[in-house]
Design brief:
mainly alpha, 22 helices
């Protein structure tokens, strides 16, 4: 039995996918009111459940920070850099899974593949509550990374199958805002669940892993039926609405190739712009995971108790959630991303400077708000920016996986950013993160400048031929459909 769709005799270019779209010969026909109603309908049927999946994923990935305050290290006889190593081993396996996972999602179906990886990481999370020594913890953390690796790049690509380029940012921001909610609720949940210590002979930190792992498995049981694979098969859409969605996407993507072919994988690997985005991303993900994994520890070293630190880690995430959604909305409305990313990088830098330069707890605590509010909005905005500027479905799937995969190597850096020997001020950790965010700020500035310049060059070349974007015919676009974002009619989001 195979989960892959059989190859159609009509397709000579490569294996087919449940995602591929039939041709559409007419443009969008809905007026603004009906389009807004259609988008709301899609939002309610797509975004909330995806956000729940990522909330569970991020909660399962980062709850080890809360477990640390509940006695994880002493119970497993961890010492020195053992905790930092336990954090770092997750990420290489997480990264290794991302490109193969995105390709498998395209070759099978989002509902099936996401269900499979959810069950896998839920089992790993539950098993983490049963470990009895440091070596077992490392093995399960590596397995968890392998299982979770496909979710974020997969869902990011999946969103691009439903929404136009300048509608994706807000939806990705709402989806990723679940990570801030995971940070907020993680502290509250950990505080409550840790009181189960002694039940079944397990310590409180073990129950944090077990309860949250079982919750993931329960949600996975419904995922296959709650996730719609594509507009063509979505039961919540009428036939007229399906036609409208296809027409909107065709107009937005300018008739670029959507079929699977290995050459589009190679096209992504040869695109230097994706590599610049990978560097931008690692500069943002290093502080992202550092905050997620160490915020309770950082707050505790401001002279608060363990329980106070668990609870005080909640408000910065609430503010970060608001900032993430607001930024996504503003960027979509303005159809710009680079300038917003540079602005939020500056906010994060100010936050880390407040942490490194002052020993007053209230000043440092305000710094955590700025750090969270500056870093978290840039994660969905960065992947939306890169995805907006990759032409063609397969190349976009690979490019997003490269972007997110390399960025997640920042998790390896974050594992060693805040070492116990550097407490309570963590000068080296704060300084490292100031450096990585500064790098991302500079590279965002370079990409913004280059893309503005390249759009102007293409406009000038088109004008020299007496053409405009509106005068390009479908036949002219069809002749360049395999060129992706190198097509003369493609314009970059700046």
């Amino acid at each position: 039995m195979s989960f892959l769709k059989p190859k159609s005799s009509l397709d000579s270019s490569g294996p087919t996918s449940v995602i591929e779209k039939p041709s559409v010969n007419v443009g969008p026909t809905f007026d603004n009111g009906r389009t807004a109603k259609l988008l709301r309908k899609m939002d309610w049927n797509i975004v909330p459940f995806l956000s729940l999946l990522y909330l569970l994923s991020f909660l399962d990935r980062t709850n080890i920070g809360n477990a640390r305050l509940a006695g994880l290290e002493s119970d497993l006889k961890m010492k020195g850099l053992d905790y930092n190593i336990a954090l770092a081993v997750f990420f290489p396996w997480y990264v290794a899974a991302e490109i193969p996972s995105n390709l498998m999602m395209k070759r099978t179906s989002p509902s099936l593949w996401l269900c499979i990886i959810m069950v896998a990481w839920g089992i790993c999370m539950t098993l983490m509550g049963l470990v009895k020594d440091f070596k077992s913890l490392l093995v399960v953390r590596m397995a968890l990374g392998l299982a979770e690796g496909g979710l974020f790049p997969g869902v990011t690509w999946y969103i691009t199958l439903w929404y136009r380029r300048h509608e994706c940012g807000l939806r990705m921001a709402i989806f990723f805002s679940a990570a801030t909610l995971a940070g907020a609720f993680g502290g509250l949940l950990a505080r409550g669940i840790s009181e189960m210590r002694g039940i079944g002979g397990r310590p409180g930190w073990a129950w944090i892993f077990i309860i949250e792992g079982i919750a993931t498995i329960i949600v996975a049981a419904f995922a296959k039926w709650l996730i719609n694979d594509s507009p063509e098969t979505a039961k919540f859409l009428t036939e007229e609405e399906r036609t409208e969605v296809r027409a909107r996407l065709k107009l937005d993507r300018t008739s670029l190739a959507d079929e699977y072919d290995i050459k589009y994988l190679y096209a992504a690997l040869r695109d230097w712009k994706i590599y610049v985005h990978m560097l931008i991303t690692i500069g943002i993900y290093a502080p992202l995971y550092s905050i997620s994994l160490f915020l309770p520890t950082i707050v505790k070293n401001m002279h608060y108790t363990n329980n106070q630190a668990q609870l005080m880690s909640v408000p910065p995430y609430v503010v970060g959630c608001i900032a993430t959604i607001t930024a996504g909305y503003a960027a979509d409305r303005s159809k710009k991303r680079g300038v917003y990313m540079m602005g939020f990088c500056l906010i994060a830098i100010i936050g880390f400077v407040m942490l490194i330069s002052n020993d007053k707890p209230h000043v440092q605590y305000v710094g955590t708000f700025l750090a969270v509010s500056g870093i978290y909005p840039n994660v969905p905005m960065g992947v939306a920016w890169n995805g907006n500027n990759i032409g063609g479905s397969t190349k976009r799937a690979v490019g997003i996986a490269m972007h997110v995969g390399f960025g997640n190597l920042g998790g390896v850096i974050s594992g060693f950013a805040y070492r116990s020997v550097d407490a309570p001020r963590y000068f080296s950790g704060h300084g490292l993160l100031i450096a990585t965010v500064s790098m991302s700020f500079c590279l965002c500035g370079f990409m913004h400048w280059y893309l503005v310049r390249e759009n102007a060059r293409r406009d000038a070349a088109m004008a020299a031929q007496g053409l405009t974007l509106d005068s390009y015919t479908e036949d002219m676009k069809e002749s360049e459909r395999e060129k992706g974002d190198n097509a003369t009619f493609f314009r970059y989001t700046v």
